[in-house]
Amino acid sequence: MNDLFERFLAVDTTAICDADRTTRVVHSAIRPRSATTRVFGPAFTVRCREDFLAVLRAVETAEAGAVIVVDGGARETALGGEMFARAALVRGLGGIVVDGGYRDMSYVAGCELPVYSRFVTPRAGTASQLGELQVPVTCGGVVVNPGDLVLGDDEGLVVLDPQRAGAVLDAALAVKNTEHKVVEMLNGGSTLSDAFNLTEHVSALQRGEQSVLRALVD
């Protein structure tokens, strides 16, 4: 897992999506609320509705490095706050992602733990329902299974199959390397038409032929 994390540090979620168009992308309504936006770790999943007891159980149960992923039904009820973020830091968790509400922004906004949520709201849920832990859930419109790899940065959150994550991250690094070369060309005064097969690509499409836009770099 450490090797995958190091590879993620060299890329970003945009390169991951460019490298694999099937990547699960969490809805952009689920936004970072903390000072740290880069998140990486295996999903520890939670399903609950209007009640945060299952989230509390997850924070106290998940292994270090895990990212708590909460299917809160996209409801505007806080399923976590300052105490949960502090406890997650104590236990070495990788982050908290809530498809629902989060609160206590006076602390969370400066928190080192990556925290993402759909809503910010002062109204908390109850603490009387067990909910479900470590089951397939839906978060931000995508299915997240226990152990799926959750990655996030300033661009958003994505979810990868852990068995494919290494290959996807390697492909994403190739994308970033190509991007760097294009940037060097642009910085040197080249245009996008110089950097890409734009004219050839457009002409082929106009003729009704299949074509792929590609960078003209070594």
Automatic annotation (TrEMBL):
InterPro entries: RraA/RraA-like, RraA/RraA-like_sf. Its EC number is 4.1.1.112, 4.1.3.17. This is Putative 4-hydroxy-4-methyl-2-oxoglutarate aldolase. Pfam families: RraA-like. Gene3D superfamilies: Ribonuclease E inhibitor RraA/RraA-like (3.50.30.40). It comes from Lentzea rhizosphaerae. Catalyzes the aldol cleavage of 4-hydroxy-4-methyl-2-oxoglutarate (HMG) into 2 molecules of pyruvate. Also contains a secondary oxaloacetate (OAA) decarboxylase activity due to the common pyruvate enolate transition state formed following C-C bond cleavage in the retro-aldol and decarboxylation reactions. It catalyses: oxaloacetate + H(+) = pyruvate + CO2; 4-hydroxy-4-methyl-2-oxoglutarate = 2 pyruvate. Homotrimer. Its cofactor is a divalent metal cation. It comes from the Bacteria. Belongs to the class II aldolase/RraA-like family.
